[in-house]
Structures are given as structure tokens and as C-alpha cells.
Amino acid sequence: MAAELFMSDIHGEYESFAHVLRSGCGAVERAIKETFPEFSEKDKTTLLMFVCYPRTMTERHLRNGYALDKAEMALHAMLGMLMSRAKEETSAAAFRHALGQEKLPETTRHDELADIDQETRIALLAHAIRNMSVEKVHLVGDIYDRGPAPDLIMDELARVVDYDIQWGNHDIVWMGAALGQPGCIAHVMRICSRYSNLPILTERYHMDLGPVEEFACRVYADDPCAAFGLKGNAVVTPEQKQVNVKIQKAMTMIQFKVEGQLIDENPGFGLADRKLLHHIDYERGTVVIDGVEHELLDKVFPTVDPANPYKLTDEEAEILAYLQKTFRECAQLQRHIKLFLDHGGLYAISGNALMFHACVPLNPDGSLMEVELFGKTLKGKALFDAIDQHVRDAFEASDAAQAKLGQDLLWYLWLGAGSPLFGKDKMATFERYLVESKEAQAEHKNAFYKLQDDEAAHDAIFRDFGMNPAQSYLACGHVPVKIKDGENPVRCNGRHFNIDGGFSEAYQPTTGIAGLTLVSDEDGLSLVEHQPFHRAHAIEENRDIVSSARKVAEYLERP
């Protein structure tokens, strides 16, 4: 029986994600063992690599003078075994999808490959095997940010027959940026520069950031940007570091200004306390937050007019307009964002699984928290459904005012206390940059996270979403699970799975592993922990990703 895979928080880590996906997180290996029990471990791994990387393996074998007939025959046999066990329509869909990926006529069948070159035949067979080994893929949010190649992840997903995406907070801010929403663009630019990830924009999406670099390096030329150091493990030259630091500060100041404007335009968001530029004493270099005065860690603000601190300078306005045009006109980004709309949503229900990225906002007593959304008070599923529709309106509404509400909501979802994608009382970006006080920097999580083992709270969530509490479980991510410290991703007696295991290298020191995958197959539910993976090493050394699985639930009949 084909596997159903649940993954979250991939954060641009393409190679590990693609291998887990292409190998079916063990499903392809099991098919190889079933088809060829007599194969040596080396031959089994070689065949697995042909399934996962057919063109690379074909080129490598040809270069080394090896015959490919054995590999092709083995792939034929595997496909035949999988087709014999699957429904006819499943087999047809898998093969049509493989043909489409190779741009061949859909009238071609798997037994009509004689006139196609061997390299393409092997690629077709491998692709069909992968799609027959994995029944469905659920991406539970956060494909973007931190890692280097979110674009390749989106392209990889397009090669899967059946998948869905539950929007994550990092995804939603990229969705807003693609629309030109100013707060979202400022966040994307700030985060990419903070983590030395601007190549995502310049190399992956081919955006010209020359005007932004010129502006930042000129305006902040003599500014050490003391509070704007880089994060993450990216290796950059001293020159690149300076560029990233200066762009980061430039975009942070633009962000604080446009957010102040958005807060005034949307008083219903309840974010007035996040406007802090007007609480700065620019002569003394201090700021008052919640009645407490703090010394600023950075006191150089050449673009801020103390009399009107939220007004963009003419140059800042030009830079923002340039970025809005650049993001809107990036065809590749628009194509990827469309996949979030066509295959995604704020949540999804598959069988007995409820999937959402971060949380269902709860009160401390476990009841559903009410959130005001454009004059309506909503909670639980009703809140999720309303948000989902507003997001789609941001892209599709013909009425400009309706579209603007949706676009501003995309920004709110990134940082609002009532956002199911954020799950905290505030986004303390200003405090983390500019004041030393840990108390001022503190972001308090929604009660959902304190109630991860509370069965009554989970029952209420499942009932509100129209599910049977006795049979249901939820899968979410957003908060990395500290496996190395003994944290358990399985909560509430197997009814709550946090599957953020740190696929991205940036989070691996926190989790101690390199990703989690929840697998549903004929044997039940298993949670698989992954170790760091490098594709080139795996192919060269003929070895699979190192993973360990544990059974977390069994059932007689799959939901």
C-alpha cells in the first residue's frame, strides 16, 4: 500500500526534502525488497538511487562504462509489481504524470517505450515508481526562508501526483510579497538579508537588487549597523557581510515605517502597541516601551524624521515601489505562489488527520479564542475559513477594497496575536534589534502550546472542525521540537503530532536531528527522524539517508 507523507518546516532545504519525498520515506526501499529479495544491500541501494535520481545515475553509469539494461529491467519489474497491487486509475495517473514531466504525448503507455531513448525510459519508469509509492504528500507549512532553495521545493512538489500545502507563516509573508504588500516585502527582504539569503531573490528568482544595495550602502555607508548582525551559518565574504548588514538595516527601518502606516489603516488588528518609532527620544538615544525606558543598542537613524517618524523618505518610497514592481513581475515567483492557492489552504482534513501549520488560538481554559476580523468575531473553524477566503480575495477579488483587506491580512497573519499562523502575543522585532532587555523581547505563546497534552482541549478542536474526537489526530509544525533535549513530538496520547524536526540546517542545532516525517501506511502511523543528508555524497557513496522510525499508532483499517 502506498504511503501518505506529512512534513513541515522544510525552510528551503531542498536536497533532504527531495530525497525523503522521492524515496517515499522508505516506501521505495520496501518495494525493492519485495520485488528483489535476492538482491545484495549494495544492489538494493543502487536501484533506490536510480529511482530517486535516474538521470544523474544514468549519466554516472554511462561515464563509467556500465550497462544500463539491468537497471531498466529492474525498474520495469518494480513498476509491474506496484501496478499489480494498485487500482487501475492510480497506475494510469502515475504514468500520465511521468509522461507529462518528460513532455511526451499522453497517449504513450508504459509498454510503448521502445522508440524512446534509454535515459528517458529510465526517468519515466523512476518517476512512475515514485508516484505509485507515495499516495499523497502533505506539506504542513513553511517552505520558504532560512534555507537556500525554496523554488526547487516548489518545482519538486509539482512533480507529485497528489499533494496539498497548509500555509505557514513564512509562506504567507512571501505570498503577500508576491502581491506587492509593503509590510510583507519589507519582512522578506529583512529576513533574507539577516540570514545571508539574498541569493534566493537574486539567483533563484533572478531579481535585480542593485538599486536596493546602492541605496543601503550609500545611506548607511559610515554606519556600523551595530544591532544588525547576521544570523545563520551562511559563509559570506567580509564585503558580502557588509552589504547584507546594510540592506538589513535599511529594510528594517522601512518595515517599521510601513507597519506604522498599516496599523493606522487597520485599527481592528489591535496592533497600536507595536508602533514604537514615536516613543524614541532621538537626542538621548532611548525608547519607552510599556512605560519602561530602555537605552537603544543602535542610535543611528539617518532616514527617520523625529517629527514624522513613520513617513518614508523619497528614496525609501522609491526603493519600496521598485521592490513592489520587481516582486509582482517575477513570473517564476508568481507561478510558485499560485501553487499555494491551487493546492493549499489554511488547513486541511485528510481521513482522520487535521493539519494546520501553527495553532488553533485558544484561551487559557482550553476554549476557542475569539478573534476580531474586519468587524466580525470568529473562532476555531469559522476563523480559519474566513481567513482562507480573505487570502484568496487578496489574489482574486475584483473589488479593489476587498482585495486590499486580504492583502493587509496577509501581513497581519505574519505577526498578529489572533493569527493561527503566529501563535504569540506580539512580534518583538523592534525589541530584539534595539533593546537589551529580555523581558521587553519576550514573546508569549498562545495557550494552545501549553495545552498540547490536554485531551479536552483537543476534543473541542476536533468537534469544532466536524471530526470525531475518538478517532482524530492533528499534525502541525511551527515550533521546532528539541529532540536532543528529550522533547517528544507525540503529544496527548498520540492525538497531537508536532512534526517540525528541523529540516533546515539553521534549526538543526535546536532539534538535534534534520527533520521529521509522519508516515501513514498499511501498518499504521510511524514517525521518522532524519539525519543530515547531502545528495552528492549519497550518490557517490551509494547510501540512503540515515533515518530511524518508531510506530506511534496502529489500526486495523486505514481512515
Give an account of the 3D structure:
The chain has 559 residues and is an alpha/beta fold. Helices cover 46% and strands 13% of the residues. It is built from 22 helices and 17 strands. The chain has helices at residues 14-22, 27-35, 41-52, 54-63, 69-85, 88-101, 118-133, 150-157, 169-179, 182-194, 199-204, 210-219, 238-265, 314-328, 331-343, 380-396, 400-415, 429-434, 438-441, 455-464, 508-511, 535-541; strands at residues 3-7, 134-139, 163-166, 280-281, 286-289, 292-295, 344-345, 347-350, 353-356, 371-373, 376-378, 473-476, 490-491, 496-498, 516-521, 524-530, 547-553. Mean pLDDT is 92; it is low at 555-559.
Helical fraction equals 40-55%
Low-confidence stretches: 555-559
What is the number of E strands?
17
Major sheet attributes: 7 strands, mixed
The end-to-end distance, rounded to whole angstroms, is 13 Å
Q: Which structural category do the helix and sheet elements fall into?
A: alpha/beta
Which outline best applies? globular
Proportion of strand residues: 5-15%
Mean pLDDT: 92
Strand order of the largest sheet: 7-3-2-1-15-16-17
Radius of gyration, taken over Cα atoms and rounded to an integer in Å: 25 Å
Tally of DSSP helical segments: 22
